[in-house]
Amino acid sequence: MEVTKSDIQKLIEVQKNNTFSNHFICSIKKDYKIYGSIEKHKINIWKRTSLTGSSYSVYSFEFDSEDVLTKVNDKLNSFAQFSQLLFPLFFFFPLLSTAFTDFQIKKFLVCISVFLFLTFACYLVSRRIYLFNKKDQLTDFYQLINIKANNKQLAKKHRSRILDLETEEKLEKEWSGSKILTRIFTYPFCLALILFGIFGMIPDGHFFIAIPMLAIVGVYLYSDLKMIFKERK
């Protein structure tokens, strides 16, 4: 069964350009409609959900001269990419300020290390949400136009790496060597940050730093464990 441009156009509920400002507005609004931009040989669609928040995917459907689907790509929206940098700078700026106030090498190294880890954790959380959601959301889009997303013949015909769920699962194995090594480092460090936040920062009144730090660590651990147990089912 061929997928045509008109099939994908039917998904769009609100037509908007794929721009930073529109993704910013979409991210802060609780509007769960399907947005899209239509070009001559390409359609971009996206949808914010309660799970993804601002970390939602933008799917690009590309068509040939006869308006038949030939390729599907996805990427994190532009505002979410920007917020991966902005969020830690805004919430953890006091750590950087502390690092350079009354400069001491030990305090400086501790503050910079914590800041870099939290920045990395923000990135991992955003990427986890993005990866966790993108396959299910694309499947939902295809179900809306009565196409089975796990149809291997369709996936092969259109060379869509997203539709090939078996390949996607192999790429995202949660127990690869690199991911095990990452968890050996991150899990104890997360535990240390939790203990430090509860017993070190909160008693000293550093709520502005402690609460966002604990929230990010908690979301990272929750999303990572959820991905692991989901794969084992």
From TrEMBL:
It comes from Flavobacterium humidisoli. The chain crosses the membrane at residues 85-101, 107-125, 180-199, 205-223. The keyword Transmembrane helix applies. This is SdpI/YhfL protein family protein. The lineage of its organism: Bacteria, Pseudomonadati, Bacteroidota, Flavobacteriia, Flavobacteriales. Keywords: Membrane, Transmembrane, Transmembrane helix.
